[in-house]
Amino acid sequence: MARIAMLGSGFIARFYTRSLHAQRSRDQVHIIYARKEESGKKFAAEFNIPKSTTDMAEAINDPEVDAVVIALPNNLHLEAVIMAAEAGKAVLCTKPLGCTGDEARQMLEAVEKAGVFHGYLEDLAYTPKTLEALDAVKSGAVGKVLWTRSRETHPGPHSDWFWDINQSGGGAILDLACHCIEVSRNYIGKNVRPVEVMCWADTLVKPIEAEDHAIGLVRYETGAVAQFEVSWAFRGGMDLRDELTGTEGTIRIDHFLRTGFEMFTAVGRGGYVAEKAEMETGWLFPVGDEVHDLGYTHMFTDMFNTMEKGSTPMETFYDGYIVNAVMDACLKSAKTKQWEPVELAIWRGNTEVTEKGSLKVEFDADYWLIKEELVPGGEIKRILKHKESGKIVQQVMAANK
Questions:
Q1: DSSP annotation of 213
Q2: Other CB atoms closer than 10 Å to residue 95's CB: what's the count?
Q3: pLDDT, tens digit, for every residue of 303-361?
Q4: What are the tens digits of pLDDT across the range 1-59?
Q5: CA neighbor of 21 nearest in space, from 43, 53, 52
Q6: Is the preceding omega at residue 96 within 30 degrees of 0, hence cis?
Q7: Inter-axis angle of helices 101-114 and 317-336, to 10 degrees?
Q8: How large is the angle between the packed helices 178-188 and 128-138, nearest 10 degrees?
Q9: Residue from 372, 373, 371, 369 nearest 386 by CA
Q10: Which of 166, 182, 243, 259 could serve as a FRET partner for 282 with CA atoms 20 to 30 Å apart?
Q11: What are the residue ranges of helices labelled H in 25-100?
Q12: Strands (DSSP E) along 232-366, which ranges?
């Protein structure tokens, strides 16, 4: 059983605590740190937490604490991580790891120098649907992954600090694209290096200094491309979707807005419906177990199981650093309006590139097979390319041949 110092008492700290206390349950929040005394005491009373404090150092250095969970505004992550590492405590940090790639690198170096357990709390990499899709990809069900698309759009964050660039460090890219980038990395392969990005970002709706919309392309060394779409001004709830295409198959996932649970009510259900839901009446899309469906259950199970075993979780500070470096390139590209390289001071993946032309399918000694299909007349049509001349030809024959 782990005793936890929860740093933060806001929306994400609530999700984390609900997951820890209600699911694995043997891990308990022992002390809550909140910047406002009233918030901390209220949180502690609600979740039956023994202690609350407005002193971050007191929470981290509590002698009964085994692990520190950081659920704070982005600009406080670096300070909290360094403090936890110096105290010799295991540390788990919410996304994004840092406001910049440089901050994330400092955090990675701090925990590795201290030799403490570290986990990157990227919940959307742990949703049941994502984990099932990853198993399918790893088993070869879709072949080599060529393209991914990840979308997270909603009406905007819950807390004021997100909208203040001095505290958040950015806008929709830092808040949402971090999810999309890491989910796609898992599908394409974490050992495959992200090479360059092209990104559009703009402030179209909200009266803020950061972007409220962005679309990006991340090109990987194998030639695979990951696309993300993010928005803080999408109406109708939270839209979480992932797609991927491989040489042998395709996967499409709808995580949240269309869950298979649909309800119409003219009078309302009298309370919370789902994260980022905008209405309490009309057609609603509730979630059966929000904490579970958004990945928190599997995420914390992985984190604390691996911590107990002395092994490495699926998501670490190294992953958080890579994501931050990709986002740095995205923000630069949005300004320069051209492809920008992903600058990685630390890279631990593959250094040899898989040949892009290695996916050719041989039809016979003379031809490559481009495509084969059953056409409406019942015949089989094959599109072929002659190996020497490069000429494209087609064959049409009866389906039984």
A1: E
A2: 24
A3: 999 999 999 999 999 999 999 999 999 999 999 999 999 999 999 999 876 555 557 88
A4: 899 999 999 999 999 999 999 855 789 999 999 999 999 999 999 999 999 999 999 99
A5: 43
A6: yes
A7: 170
A8: 30
A9: 369
A10: 243
A11: 37-46, 56-61, 77-86
A12: 239-246, 250-254, 263-265, 282-284, 340-341, 361-362
* Token reading at 384: 């072929």
Q: What is the mean pLDDT of the chain?
A: 92
Residue with tokens 């085994």: 66
Coil/strand/helix, residue 287: coil
* CB neighbours of residue 326 within 10 Å: 28
**Pairwise CA distance, residues 52 & 383, whole Å:** 69
Residues β-bridged to residue 52: 32
| Claim: this prediction has a pTM higher than 0.85 | yes
- Token readout for 331 is 């923000």
* Per-residue exposure over 59-77, b if at least 16 CB sit within 10 Å of its own CB, e if not: bbbbeebbbbbbbbbbbbb
Instruction: Give, in degrees to the nearest 5, the angle at Cα 188 between 185 and 190.
Output: 50
Q: Which domains does the chain have, with CATH numbers?
A: 3-122 (3.40.50.720), 125-341 (3.30.360.10), 360-398 (no CATH)
69, HSE (Cβ side, Cα atoms, 13 Å): 30
Counting Cα atoms < 13 Å in the Cβ hemisphere of 247 gives 13
> CB under 8 Å to 186, separation ≥6 — which residues?
125, 130, 134
Distance, in Å, from the CA atom of 58 to the CA atom of 38, rounded to the nearest integer, reads: 17
Residues in the chain: 401
Q: Which two tokens stand for residue 4?
A: 């936890």
